[in-house]
Design brief:
Strand content: over 45%
CATH class of the largest domain: Mainly Beta
CATH superfamily of the largest domain: Immunoglobulins
Number of helices: 2
Helix content: under 10%
CATH architecture of the largest domain: Sandwich
Radius of gyration: 29 Å
């Protein structure tokens, strides 16, 4: 039997391979050695002699116990001796995908403000935060408060921005092992503010009749 750590995965993953002298199913029972009640099974009912199984979702830097067994076509069971192994420390940051930015205008006239609704996905549970700044490049001088509730699907709203302004931003996500991922830099322009209802009415009358131009400018 061989156990191999699989690198570059979102959670701890091992590849288990073994050979039997007769075709049997592949059953692996595994659990943290300190917590047998958390046992899980990886089952493949195909009857083979060359067995291969990927076990994922393992905790980092944790000792595990594993028992491999299988049954032949008439139900005879073969059980191997228990094996122990330890997973590696988590040094891989989350992978950020599907970054989207939706500009929104709130209010009208001089009271209008803009906000950016930022969403993205990660391939492991992680926090949510956005760094942002004015312009299309340079430093990101501001950050939203970090949402420490770890999730796969992230949503952050940046409020109180100026209308008709260029901003750039990056999404930030940190996993339980404090590995932080940073997205690509995204540039966005906030929407232009709209006129108040009164100014719109006056402006329309001015265009229609041509004698309220002075009022429309007030």
């Amino acid at each position: 039997m061989k156990l191999q750590q699989v690198k570059g995965t979102a959670t701890g993953t091992i590849l288990v391979t073994w050979v039997t002298n007769t075709p049997i199913s592949s059953i692996i029972t595994y659990y943290p050695s300190a917590n047998p009640s958390a046992a899980q099974d990886n089952i493949d009912v195909k009857l083979v002699t060359a067995h291969r199984a990927l076990i994922s979702g393992l905790l980092p830097n944790t000792a595990y116990t594993m028992v491999v067994k299988g049954r032949d076509k008439v139900g005879n069971e073969a059980v191997a001796s228990a094996q122990t192994f330890s997973t590696a420390s988590d040094t891989r940051p989350p992978s950020i995908a599907n970054l989207k930015v939706e500009p929104v205008i709130l209010g009208v006239g001089e009271e209008a403000t803009a906000q950016l609704v930022v969403s993205w996905d990660t391939d492991e549970l992680s926090t949510s935060q956005v760094a942002y700044g004015e312009g299309s490049g340079g430093s990101l001088g501001s950050k939203t408060q970090q949402d420490s509730n770890r999730t796969f699907n992230h949503l952050v709203v940046i409020s109180n921005l100026q209308p008709s302004k260029v901003y750039h931003l990056k999404a930030l996500s940190m996993d339980e092992a404090s590995n932080e991922a940073t997205s690509v830099d995204r540039v966005v322009i906030t929407p232009k503010e709209t006129k108040s209802a009164l100014n719109l009415v006056v402006s329309n009358l001015s265009q229609a009749f041509g004698f309220l131009g002075g009022i429309a400018g007030n």
